[in-house]
Design goal:
By secondary structure, the chain is of the alpha/beta class. It is 38% helix and 15% strand. The protein has helices at 5-10, 24-29, 47-56, 68-71, 81-92, 123-141, 167-172, 176-187, 206-222, 249-264, 285-304, 349-360, and strands at residues 34-39, 59-62, 96-104, 146-153, 192-197, 228-231, 234-235, 268-276, 309-314. The longest helix has 20 residues, at 285-304. Bound molecules: ligand 9MR. Residues 63-64, 67, 109, 153, 198, 232, 273, 323 line the site of ligand 9MR.
Length: 368
Protein backbone atom coordinates (compact mmCIF):
# COMPACT_ATOMS: atom_id res chain seq x y z
CA UNK A 1 0.00 0.00 0.00
CA UNK A 2 1.37 3.43 -0.92
CA UNK A 3 1.83 5.88 1.90
CA UNK A 4 0.54 9.34 1.26
CA UNK A 5 1.79 12.86 1.94
CA UNK A 6 3.59 13.58 5.19
CA UNK A 7 3.44 9.96 6.30
CA UNK A 8 5.48 8.91 3.25
CA UNK A 9 8.02 11.66 3.97
CA UNK A 10 8.46 10.59 7.61
CA UNK A 11 8.48 6.92 6.72
CA UNK A 12 5.74 6.17 9.26
CA UNK A 13 2.07 6.99 9.60
CA UNK A 14 1.27 9.72 12.14
CA UNK A 15 -0.40 8.27 15.23
CA UNK A 16 -4.17 8.77 15.30
CA UNK A 17 -5.25 11.75 17.41
CA UNK A 18 -6.50 10.90 20.88
CA UNK A 19 -10.33 11.08 21.08
CA UNK A 20 -11.69 13.72 23.48
CA UNK A 21 -13.24 11.08 25.73
CA UNK A 22 -9.79 9.57 26.19
CA UNK A 23 -7.90 12.77 26.96
CA UNK A 24 -5.84 12.66 30.16
CA UNK A 25 -8.28 15.09 31.76
CA UNK A 26 -11.29 12.99 30.69
CA UNK A 27 -9.69 9.87 32.18
CA UNK A 28 -8.82 11.79 35.35
CA UNK A 29 -12.35 13.19 35.65
CA UNK A 30 -13.87 9.74 35.63
CA UNK A 31 -12.12 9.28 38.96
CA UNK A 32 -12.96 12.70 40.40
CA UNK A 33 -9.51 14.04 39.51
CA UNK A 34 -8.35 16.78 37.19
CA UNK A 35 -5.34 16.86 34.92
CA UNK A 36 -3.38 19.88 33.72
CA UNK A 37 -0.04 21.36 32.81
CA UNK A 38 2.16 24.35 33.43
CA UNK A 39 2.22 26.70 30.47
CA UNK A 40 4.52 29.69 29.88
CA UNK A 41 3.09 32.74 28.11
CA UNK A 42 5.51 32.33 25.20
CA UNK A 43 3.90 28.96 24.40
CA UNK A 44 0.70 30.83 23.43
CA UNK A 45 2.41 31.58 20.11
CA UNK A 46 2.81 27.85 19.43
CA UNK A 47 -0.48 26.82 17.83
CA UNK A 48 0.25 23.08 17.84
CA UNK A 49 1.28 23.03 21.48
CA UNK A 50 -1.64 25.24 22.57
CA UNK A 51 -4.07 22.94 20.77
CA UNK A 52 -2.52 19.91 22.45
CA UNK A 53 -2.93 21.55 25.87
CA UNK A 54 -6.55 22.44 25.12
CA UNK A 55 -7.22 18.84 24.05
CA UNK A 56 -5.48 16.99 26.90
CA UNK A 57 -5.95 19.27 29.90
CA UNK A 58 -8.70 20.44 32.24
CA UNK A 59 -6.58 23.18 33.75
CA UNK A 60 -3.35 25.09 33.34
CA UNK A 61 -1.00 26.87 35.70
CA UNK A 62 1.17 29.79 34.67
CA UNK A 63 4.73 28.49 34.68
CA UNK A 64 6.26 31.82 35.73
CA UNK A 65 3.73 34.59 35.08
CA UNK A 66 2.24 34.77 38.59
CA UNK A 67 5.67 35.03 40.20
CA UNK A 68 6.81 38.26 41.84
CA UNK A 69 9.62 38.77 39.33
CA UNK A 70 7.08 38.94 36.50
CA UNK A 71 4.18 40.64 38.31
CA UNK A 72 6.32 43.20 40.15
CA UNK A 73 8.78 45.00 37.84
CA UNK A 74 9.28 47.46 40.72
CA UNK A 75 8.15 47.87 44.32
CA UNK A 76 5.31 50.22 43.36
CA UNK A 77 4.08 48.63 40.12
CA UNK A 78 2.20 45.50 39.02
CA UNK A 79 2.29 44.13 35.47
CA UNK A 80 -0.43 41.58 34.84
CA UNK A 81 -0.03 41.44 31.06
CA UNK A 82 1.49 37.95 30.60
CA UNK A 83 -0.58 36.44 33.41
CA UNK A 84 -3.77 37.86 31.92
CA UNK A 85 -2.91 36.42 28.50
CA UNK A 86 -2.68 32.95 30.01
CA UNK A 87 -5.92 33.58 31.90
CA UNK A 88 -7.62 34.53 28.63
CA UNK A 89 -6.33 31.36 26.94
CA UNK A 90 -7.73 29.26 29.78
CA UNK A 91 -11.13 30.98 29.52
CA UNK A 92 -11.26 30.66 25.75
CA UNK A 93 -10.71 26.89 25.99
CA UNK A 94 -12.82 26.25 29.07
CA UNK A 95 -9.78 25.35 31.15
CA UNK A 96 -9.37 25.97 34.86
CA UNK A 97 -6.47 28.04 36.15
CA UNK A 98 -4.23 27.27 39.14
CA UNK A 99 -2.23 30.01 40.79
CA UNK A 100 1.53 29.58 41.33
CA UNK A 101 2.57 31.31 43.57
CA UNK A 102 1.74 34.16 45.94
CA UNK A 103 5.14 33.84 47.58
CA UNK A 104 8.08 31.81 46.30
CA UNK A 105 10.04 32.10 49.49
CA UNK A 106 13.52 32.07 47.93
CA UNK A 107 15.17 35.39 47.21
CA UNK A 108 16.95 34.08 44.10
CA UNK A 109 13.53 33.48 42.48
CA UNK A 110 11.80 36.56 43.83
CA UNK A 111 11.56 40.11 42.55
CA UNK A 112 15.01 41.35 41.52
CA UNK A 113 14.70 44.60 43.46
CA UNK A 114 13.50 42.99 46.70
CA UNK A 115 16.81 42.12 48.44
CA UNK A 116 18.00 45.74 48.15
CA UNK A 117 14.62 47.29 48.98
CA UNK A 118 14.59 49.89 51.74
CA UNK A 119 11.75 49.04 54.12
CA UNK A 120 12.26 52.27 56.09
CA UNK A 121 12.36 52.87 59.85
CA UNK A 122 9.79 50.16 60.73
CA UNK A 123 10.89 47.38 58.39
CA UNK A 124 8.82 44.59 59.92
CA UNK A 125 5.54 46.47 59.57
CA UNK A 126 6.46 47.69 56.08
CA UNK A 127 7.38 44.18 54.89
CA UNK A 128 4.14 42.77 56.24
CA UNK A 129 2.19 45.54 54.51
CA UNK A 130 3.93 44.87 51.20
CA UNK A 131 3.33 41.13 51.42
CA UNK A 132 -0.33 41.44 52.40
CA UNK A 133 -0.90 44.02 49.69
CA UNK A 134 0.68 41.76 47.07
CA UNK A 135 -1.33 38.72 48.09
CA UNK A 136 -4.62 40.64 48.25
CA UNK A 137 -4.05 42.38 44.92
CA UNK A 138 -3.02 39.27 42.99
CA UNK A 139 -5.46 36.78 44.52
CA UNK A 140 -8.42 39.18 44.19
CA UNK A 141 -7.67 39.88 40.55
CA UNK A 142 -8.13 36.19 39.70
CA UNK A 143 -10.85 35.50 42.27
CA UNK A 144 -13.30 34.35 39.61
CA UNK A 145 -10.84 32.15 37.81
CA UNK A 146 -8.17 30.64 40.06
CA UNK A 147 -9.67 27.98 42.28
CA UNK A 148 -6.48 26.94 44.04
CA UNK A 149 -3.36 28.89 44.92
CA UNK A 150 0.11 27.78 45.86
CA UNK A 151 0.09 30.40 48.59
CA UNK A 152 3.67 29.69 49.58
CA UNK A 153 6.24 27.76 47.56
CA UNK A 154 9.42 26.08 48.81
CA UNK A 155 9.75 27.80 52.20
CA UNK A 156 11.53 24.83 53.81
CA UNK A 157 15.29 24.53 53.41
CA UNK A 158 15.94 20.89 52.36
CA UNK A 159 19.37 20.91 54.03
CA UNK A 160 18.09 21.80 57.52
CA UNK A 161 14.32 21.27 57.48
CA UNK A 162 13.96 24.82 58.84
CA UNK A 163 12.33 27.80 57.15
CA UNK A 164 14.65 29.59 54.74
CA UNK A 165 16.23 32.86 55.85
CA UNK A 166 14.80 35.05 53.09
CA UNK A 167 14.07 38.79 52.99
CA UNK A 168 10.52 38.24 54.26
CA UNK A 169 11.51 35.31 56.47
CA UNK A 170 14.12 37.37 58.30
CA UNK A 171 11.83 40.36 58.80
CA UNK A 172 8.64 38.48 59.73
CA UNK A 173 10.05 35.38 61.42
CA UNK A 174 8.13 32.12 61.61
CA UNK A 175 4.82 34.01 61.37
CA UNK A 176 5.52 34.67 57.68
CA UNK A 177 3.76 31.58 56.38
CA UNK A 178 0.61 32.05 58.49
CA UNK A 179 0.39 35.70 57.45
CA UNK A 180 0.35 34.63 53.78
CA UNK A 181 -2.36 32.01 54.27
CA UNK A 182 -4.57 34.30 56.38
CA UNK A 183 -4.29 37.10 53.85
CA UNK A 184 -5.09 34.74 50.96
CA UNK A 185 -8.10 33.38 52.86
CA UNK A 186 -9.39 36.90 53.47
CA UNK A 187 -8.93 37.83 49.79
CA UNK A 188 -10.35 34.68 48.19
CA UNK A 189 -12.32 32.73 50.80
CA UNK A 190 -13.58 30.22 48.22
CA UNK A 191 -10.19 29.23 46.82
CA UNK A 192 -8.24 26.19 47.99
CA UNK A 193 -4.99 27.19 49.68
CA UNK A 194 -1.94 25.04 49.12
CA UNK A 195 1.60 24.82 50.48
CA UNK A 196 3.81 23.62 47.60
CA UNK A 197 7.28 22.07 47.83
CA UNK A 198 9.68 19.64 46.15
CA UNK A 199 10.36 17.21 49.01
CA UNK A 200 10.80 13.87 47.34
CA UNK A 201 11.19 10.19 48.04
CA UNK A 202 14.65 8.82 48.89
CA UNK A 203 16.74 8.71 52.08
CA UNK A 204 18.59 11.90 51.23
CA UNK A 205 15.22 13.71 51.21
CA UNK A 206 14.28 12.75 54.78
CA UNK A 207 15.25 16.11 56.28
CA UNK A 208 13.18 17.96 53.70
CA UNK A 209 10.15 15.75 54.35
CA UNK A 210 10.52 16.20 58.13
CA UNK A 211 10.79 19.95 57.71
CA UNK A 212 7.63 20.09 55.62
CA UNK A 213 5.75 17.96 58.15
CA UNK A 214 6.89 20.25 60.95
CA UNK A 215 5.70 23.28 59.04
CA UNK A 216 2.30 21.75 58.24
CA UNK A 217 1.79 20.49 61.81
CA UNK A 218 2.53 23.95 63.17
CA UNK A 219 0.13 25.57 60.72
CA UNK A 220 -2.65 23.15 61.61
CA UNK A 221 -2.01 23.62 65.36
CA UNK A 222 -2.22 27.40 64.99
CA UNK A 223 -5.32 27.23 62.82
CA UNK A 224 -3.78 28.58 59.62
CA UNK A 225 -6.23 28.11 56.73
CA UNK A 226 -4.47 25.49 54.60
CA UNK A 227 -6.33 22.94 52.46
CA UNK A 228 -3.65 20.87 50.79
CA UNK A 229 -0.01 20.00 50.28
CA UNK A 230 1.27 20.41 46.74
CA UNK A 231 3.74 17.63 46.00
CA UNK A 232 5.67 19.01 43.06
CA UNK A 233 6.59 15.52 41.86
CA UNK A 234 9.84 16.24 40.01
CA UNK A 235 10.91 12.63 40.17
CA UNK A 236 14.02 10.97 38.75
CA UNK A 237 16.12 13.51 40.65
CA UNK A 238 14.37 16.69 39.50
CA UNK A 239 16.16 19.38 41.47
CA UNK A 240 18.40 17.08 43.46
CA UNK A 241 22.07 16.38 42.92
CA UNK A 242 21.55 12.60 42.83
CA UNK A 243 19.66 11.01 39.93
CA UNK A 244 17.01 8.51 41.10
CA UNK A 245 16.04 5.97 38.48
CA UNK A 246 13.76 3.78 40.60
CA UNK A 247 11.22 3.91 43.40
CA UNK A 248 12.50 1.13 45.68
CA UNK A 249 10.32 -0.74 48.17
CA UNK A 250 12.08 1.03 51.05
CA UNK A 251 11.57 4.43 49.41
CA UNK A 252 7.90 3.63 48.81
CA UNK A 253 7.44 2.69 52.46
CA UNK A 254 9.05 5.92 53.69
CA UNK A 255 7.16 8.02 51.18
CA UNK A 256 3.85 6.45 52.23
CA UNK A 257 4.69 7.23 55.86
CA UNK A 258 5.16 10.86 54.85
CA UNK A 259 1.94 11.04 52.84
CA UNK A 260 0.04 9.27 55.63
CA UNK A 261 1.13 11.98 58.06
CA UNK A 262 -0.08 14.68 55.70
CA UNK A 263 -3.40 12.91 55.27
CA UNK A 264 -3.60 12.46 59.04
CA UNK A 265 -3.59 16.25 59.36
CA UNK A 266 -6.75 16.39 57.28
CA UNK A 267 -5.00 17.87 54.26
CA UNK A 268 -5.71 17.07 50.63
CA UNK A 269 -2.93 16.41 48.12
CA UNK A 270 -2.03 17.64 44.65
CA UNK A 271 0.75 16.67 42.31
CA UNK A 272 1.56 20.11 41.02
CA UNK A 273 4.65 19.87 38.80
CA UNK A 274 5.07 16.29 37.65
CA UNK A 275 7.89 15.25 35.34
CA UNK A 276 10.57 12.56 35.20
CA UNK A 277 14.19 13.61 34.95
CA UNK A 278 15.84 11.06 32.66
CA UNK A 279 19.33 12.38 33.28
CA UNK A 280 20.66 9.02 34.52
CA UNK A 281 18.69 6.81 32.14
CA UNK A 282 19.98 5.01 29.00
CA UNK A 283 20.62 7.00 25.84
CA UNK A 284 18.60 4.70 23.61
CA UNK A 285 15.19 6.29 23.26
CA UNK A 286 12.96 3.22 23.51
CA UNK A 287 14.70 2.07 26.68
CA UNK A 288 14.82 5.53 28.15
CA UNK A 289 11.12 6.18 27.50
CA UNK A 290 10.25 2.80 29.01
CA UNK A 291 12.22 3.60 32.18
CA UNK A 292 10.63 7.03 32.47
CA UNK A 293 7.17 5.50 32.07
CA UNK A 294 7.84 2.73 34.59
CA UNK A 295 9.13 5.12 37.26
CA UNK A 296 6.17 7.42 36.66
CA UNK A 297 3.65 4.59 36.89
CA UNK A 298 5.09 3.39 40.23
CA UNK A 299 4.92 6.89 41.69
CA UNK A 300 1.48 7.75 40.29
CA UNK A 301 -0.06 4.43 41.33
CA UNK A 302 1.05 5.02 44.90
CA UNK A 303 -0.14 8.62 44.94
CA UNK A 304 -3.46 7.93 43.21
CA UNK A 305 -4.21 5.30 45.81
CA UNK A 306 -4.84 8.26 48.15
CA UNK A 307 -8.31 9.60 47.61
CA UNK A 308 -7.04 12.88 49.04
CA UNK A 309 -5.12 13.38 45.78
CA UNK A 310 -7.30 15.73 43.74
CA UNK A 311 -5.26 17.02 40.81
CA UNK A 312 -2.26 15.99 38.76
CA UNK A 313 -0.40 18.65 36.79
CA UNK A 314 2.71 18.13 34.70
CA UNK A 315 5.41 20.80 34.49
CA UNK A 316 5.21 20.96 30.72
CA UNK A 317 3.25 18.64 28.45
CA UNK A 318 5.99 18.24 25.82
CA UNK A 319 9.74 17.77 26.08
CA UNK A 320 10.53 20.94 24.19
CA UNK A 321 8.87 23.02 26.93
CA UNK A 322 10.53 21.29 29.87
CA UNK A 323 12.61 23.37 32.28
CA UNK A 324 14.80 20.28 32.67
CA UNK A 325 16.38 20.86 29.25
CA UNK A 326 18.35 23.69 30.80
CA UNK A 327 19.03 22.09 34.19
CA UNK A 328 21.72 19.51 35.09
CA UNK A 329 22.29 18.19 31.56
CA UNK A 330 22.80 14.52 30.72
CA UNK A 331 26.43 13.39 30.57
CA UNK A 332 25.96 12.50 26.87
CA UNK A 333 24.46 15.91 26.11
CA UNK A 334 21.30 14.42 24.58
CA UNK A 335 18.02 16.32 24.98
CA UNK A 336 15.95 15.10 27.91
CA UNK A 337 12.60 13.32 27.58
CA UNK A 338 10.77 14.16 30.85
CA UNK A 339 7.25 14.94 29.54
CA UNK A 340 4.31 12.89 28.18
CA UNK A 341 4.82 14.25 24.63
CA UNK A 342 8.04 14.49 22.66
CA UNK A 343 9.51 17.53 20.95
CA UNK A 344 7.35 16.83 17.88
CA UNK A 345 4.22 16.62 20.04
CA UNK A 346 3.90 12.86 19.64
CA UNK A 347 2.60 10.91 22.61
CA UNK A 348 5.26 8.88 24.43
CA UNK A 349 5.06 5.85 26.72
CA UNK A 350 4.87 8.29 29.65
CA UNK A 351 1.52 9.49 28.36
CA UNK A 352 0.24 5.93 28.26
CA UNK A 353 1.60 5.28 31.76
CA UNK A 354 -0.32 8.30 33.04
CA UNK A 355 -3.50 7.22 31.26
CA UNK A 356 -3.11 3.71 32.73
CA UNK A 357 -2.57 5.14 36.22
CA UNK A 358 -5.75 7.25 35.91
CA UNK A 359 -7.73 4.25 34.61
CA UNK A 360 -6.57 2.14 37.56
CA UNK A 361 -7.14 4.84 40.19
CA UNK A 362 -9.97 4.57 42.72
CA UNK A 363 -12.78 7.08 42.46
CA UNK A 364 -12.75 10.03 44.81
CA UNK A 365 -14.88 13.02 45.66
CA UNK A 366 -14.16 15.90 43.30
CA UNK A 367 -12.40 18.86 44.92
CA UNK A 368 -15.22 21.25 45.72
O1 LIG B 1 9.93 26.03 35.00
C1 LIG B 1 10.24 27.26 35.62
C2 LIG B 1 11.35 27.96 34.85
O2 LIG B 1 10.88 28.33 33.57
C3 LIG B 1 11.81 29.20 35.60
O3 LIG B 1 12.94 29.76 34.97
C4 LIG B 1 12.13 28.86 37.05
C5 LIG B 1 12.45 30.12 37.83
O4 LIG B 1 11.32 30.95 37.92
O5 LIG B 1 11.04 28.21 37.67
C6 LIG B 1 10.67 27.01 37.06
O6 LIG B 1 9.56 26.44 37.74
C7 LIG B 1 9.81 26.01 39.08
C8 LIG B 1 8.53 26.22 39.86
O7 LIG B 1 8.11 27.56 39.76
C9 LIG B 1 8.71 25.83 41.32
N1 LIG B 1 9.22 24.49 41.44
C10 LIG B 1 10.38 24.15 40.65
C11 LIG B 1 10.14 24.51 39.18
C12 LIG B 1 11.33 24.10 38.33
O8 LIG B 1 12.46 24.83 38.71
Amino acid sequence: MALSGAAALCGAAAPPPIPAAESLDALARKKGLRFGTAMPAHALADAGYSALIARECGLIVAENEHKWYVLRPSADRFDFTPADRLGAFAREHGLGLRGHTLLWDRDEYGAKWLPAHDFGPRPRAAAERMLRDHIRTVASRYANQVDSWDVVNEAVDPATGELRATVFGKLLGPELIDICFHEAKAAVPGAKLVYNDYMNFGVEEATHRQGVLKLLEGMKARGAPIDALGVQGHIGGGVDPTPVARFSAADQRDWRAFVDEVRGMGLDLLITEFDVNDRAMPAEIARRDAEVAALAKDFLDLMLDYRELKQVLVWGLADRYSWLQGTAPRADGLPKRPAPYDADLKAKPLREAMAAAFRAAPERRTWA
